[in-house]
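A note from the maintainers: we've had questions about how concatenated examples are separated. There is no special marker in the raw files; a new sequence line simply starts the next protein. For clarity in this README we add a label.
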Amino acid sequence: MTLHYKSIILLLSITSCNLATQSYVQPTSNINITNSLTNDEAVSNMITPYKKGMSKAMNEVIGFCPAFLEKEKPSSILGSFMAEATLQAAASTGEKVDFCLLNYGGIRSTLDSGNITIGEVFEIMPFENEITILTLSKAQMDTLYTVIAKKGGEPFANRNWQEKTANHKANSASFRLVTNDYMANGGDNYTILTHAKERIDTGIKIRDGLITYIKAHNPLPLIYKPSRN
């Protein structure tokens, strides 16, 4: 480094140290939104193609629901369907899975009877949550059931239930739980899940799992195994 550059750096350092930090109040004014406001034509022209494309995508019909579904506790057909769809999406990765647990609060809408559109799936699951597979010990599963019971139930689906219940008394038994990354990170007071023996982030969005399931099960089946909650 030449003396010339050293001098510049020294000057900048001294100058920056002497800068006064003052706050200035920038005058602003409120803009009332009324019917008299007109659209900006340039902005509207820019947005219109994207709006039309989004509307077309959201209105795509991917299946049929025979009845109106809403979330309930301790369990509901809507919650069971979502859990089963998530469980199957996780199983499609080739990983061994036993149960799926989702959070009641994560279901954000109902599902109307009739055609199911992509937009309706976004309404049910507007978040970008992804599917996570956790390996839990027997003790951790016992704690998990206690948490679920205190919450009054959660969306739940299971696989190989008889086999797992037969081994449930063995302290060495491991359980592969499918859930969302929000819960796996301890969200909704599921701190127990952060202590899993193993964690696999599949990168599959819950929403995509729902869409795949609906397309493969048309009309949507409304008979699911009773939840263990």
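[label: protein 2]
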Amino acid sequence: MTDITIRNVRTVLTMDDGGTEMSDCDIRIADGMIAEVGPSLIPAGEIVEATGCLVTPGLVNTHHHLYQSLTRAVPGGQDALLFGWLKALYPIWARFGPEEMRVSALTGLAELALSGCTLTSDHLYLFPNGSRLDDTIEAAQEIGMRFHPTRGAMSIGESAGGLPPDSLVEREADILADCILVIDAHHDATEGAMVRVGVAPCSPFSVSRELMRDAALLARDKGVMLHTHLAENDEDVAYSQEKFGCRPGQYAEDLGWTGDDVWHAHCVKLDGAEIDLFARSKTGVAHCPCSNCRLGSGIAPVRAMRDAGVKVGLGVDGSASNDAGNLVAEARQAMLLQRVAHGADKMSAREALRIATRGGAEVLGRHDCGQIAVGKRADIAIWDLAGIESAGSWDPAALLLAGPTRVKHLFVEGRQVVRDGQVTTIDLARVISTQNRLAAALAS
């Protein structure tokens, strides 16, 4: 792999333990890792000029449903709460196949890359018409994104008291067997891995207690992480109390769904006891502020979580409930919501950006990522401060206050995935054309 020297950086936000910020320096990449950071380095390999630019670690997305990029702004689901929104979309998703899964993943991953994201998870919990998790993994490999897909599942359909239609649920034995297959085929536990696989039953209202318990046992036997939705809104909490006789946090703990190998999406309605439980057990949270606003779910208690020591990362959630996949815009929304809820001094632009980088890496168990530091993976976002968004800004590091929201250059494992604001690894115009054709076919 060719060495790369990023030269004349105006400001580097390292996100290291001390929160170091550096000015007028260079970064050298070698073998997919950060080899040197400092002023006036001896250039080696390809030279990338970063005069006037801000450099951050690549952003990390801890919760997504990539397939949903084919169903943005669908009538009937635009103004519904979570359960009503799902019921409007399930019949459309049931018509997907492998091509829809792959193309929607390419679209969603490219959108993330252009917003500075280098590592993303994905929660795929339905597999209609021959679709496989492999479809999305192949898309991530084509784009060059570091990927943490999760093998989701739904097993309780409407006829058994669940929310999804029966056509989208699977036999629990088949779910567990396929989890083993995809983990064995794709999971890489080594440092610097480009693909790691997780186990992710969709939610407490679409799978049984038995599947939740068995999935946790399987994941720990295989040494992979666990993910699901939890406490997303008031309906979610009410369902847990009615069906299980307890709040979502107690349900999770009883079934083995707490620990440093677990992260839950949303957690908008966690109470104080549940926040303390997550802090003690080192359970992670994927905070999805834009989707939570779009679905009217509420403002997650991120300030209380952070103050208690809970690991928090950001997630754009699905593009049918966001309806975008811009991670730097998500970080800004996270900052603004905590200020609305608690005051303007309760979350700084720097803290929100740290959640979007180092925070997300920690939630996903990726201590090799999320920092600009020697020995870490070369996942690097370069932001051009010469545009209109930053004109007049006094603080080059205040990215979430003054922009930009689109990255200039992006490196993943030392490979340039975005150059001068354009994705380099795929024909994006062709992908968009195919995406629009597929969406039109679904709509008709």
